Amino acid sequence: MKNLKQHIINTEESVITITGLYKSFDDLQVLKGIDFNLFKGENIAVLGKSGTGKSVLIKIIVGLLKPDHGEVLVLGKHVDQLKTKELDALRLRIGFSFQNSALYDSMNVFQNLAFPLTMNIKNLSKGEVKDAVEEVLESVGLKDKLKQMPSDLSGGQRKRIGIARTLILKPEIMLYDEPTSGLDPVTSAEINELINEVQQEYNTSSVIITHDLTCAKNTGNRIALMFDGKFLKVGTFAEVFDTDDEQVKGFFNYNFIQ
What we know:
36% of the residues lie in helices and 27% in strands. By secondary structure, it is an alpha/beta fold. The longest helix has 18 residues. The radius of gyration is 18 Å and the shape is globular.
């Protein structure tokens, strides 16, 4: 991913719009009135400590959980109102990069990447599958790992392969769940750079769930700081953290920025 053109965010077009979102599990209220917009071509980092509701939010976005109240509009579709086939079709337009990379241990890298392609797009030739796999592997800088097993890869390499497997279907929206979790600072910086390169080369709109300030600062065009099931502040990194709000300052002090 070299010589990338200047990236353009279309603030006239929202690809995710969430209004008045509430979600509880029995007596535990997790989301307490979320309002949220993701614009076309934008990266938003949803930042917060563990247990604040970040992962519940993205599960609702892809229809894995239903909201108790509120509206969730993704690529023009009301997610909670979709039938199974409609939801499956929408999910093909959304890439979900799991925290643990979710690779199949019994498959090598090529097989892991080819699997979602052959499952979802019929009548592809072997050559077309091979070309698609090699293209996304080159995008994440791991074209030489084609025949490697997941157990032979480092944590950072598994993260990259997980992102490549998501990209192979060319999604319009990317959802990253704690992309730098468990990685050393150098590898974390490489994953942050990759997220930005994916945004530019594939023109994705992304939600990056993280508790890592460095990740949020380096990947998010905007930051949405979540605390106790609500967004305390939404804006650029400077707009969010240039404040006397003790809750915001407390989160800043809880973390570490390179």
